[in-house]
Known about the structure:
The protein is mostly helical. It has one domain. It has 18 helices and six strands. The strands form three sheets. It has a two-stranded antiparallel sheet with strand order 1-6. Belongs to the QNG1 protein family. GO terms for molecular function: hydrolase activity.
Amino acid sequence: MALISELPDGGYGAALPQAWEAACTGRGVALPPAGANYLECVRESAAALVAGVGQPLVAVDGARAQSYADALDAAKFDRYVRHVSGWAHRLPLSFDNVAQELNLVALVGLLQIGSGFRKELHAATGRGASDTVSFGCMSLHISQTPLDARGLQALALDDVAQHFGIPLLGKERPALGSTTAVTISEPSALRPLAEIILGCLQDTGRRLEQGGYSSLADFVIRTCAEKPTAEHLVRKLVAALPSLRDAADVGGRPVYLFKKAQLIAYDVCQRFGGTDAKFAFPDIGDLTLFADNVVPAMLQHHGLIVPCKEIAAKISAGRELTLAEATAMRAASIVAAQLVVDRARSSSSSGKSEALLAAGEFPVCQATLDSFWWHEGKEPELRAIERLVCKKTAYF
């Protein structure tokens, strides 16, 4: 059986959408060395970027992180984390078996993208990026569209448009030089997002089939049977699928974020870990933030991270960030989150804030903080805060 990581990036089958090709920027970044812990590489590379020589693109306020941890509302924390972490339990769907459900949960994680198109999505569909992905994946399941490796390859752009509710055509304009009522439709501003989604699905299907896996669920199940840890699953997912290779070269150094691969590991553990030992990852607390467009905005709002003037001005104006700028914001969020975790743990061990760590079923770690901040960003008074905008990415 071939190792998926050894398969070529192209050269087999029909060409993939150009928007997806351009959005998979991490394909050119070398993966961590053999034997390295991928979760630690995320922490270390993020910290190295923030602490780099010269003026940082985004600074982390350590003192503010400590005071924030001391004042964190334990009851609110537990309530928000429970709501976000249990999303898979609330899917209004029926499944033939566990593998079918696992496949859909993993596909939702694979497609957690499109945040840069948030405003366009709300204007066109009334849904944000995350809801658009959930809506589309549920529609595919309800319509009994095959979602195994071959089924993913068979999907077309029209399928994405139909199931995800993404318009491919925009406004109509009169045809130039026409003396009749002929009009021409402009491509929709959301068409690139549809193409990125299609590329993620088609390329994943191709690589799964060539690697000898019948579906994404088959890949996850067999990977976790080898070694039931979150780090092992993240490592394998990132190595196998370019759509999950969330990394960037910033200033000549690799920065690893691996947002979606970590999110898949977390969701699989939350949904299936209670009934299947191979998904009950003992290192689930080692995951980092699933850094997207919302969480860094919340940390900037709370003063835990401070972007340079250029980035701050772009965010305030809703303008698109460069890959380096978005990476710096996301990396700084991971560093700040670790400071909050460290403070909460040290306070608990010294007799302070014990209720915070024992708030309920969820301990304070980066993954649960992510759920908390992400849900906090949905509060009515905080929805107006400008998020990060980066459209040419397949990673968040």
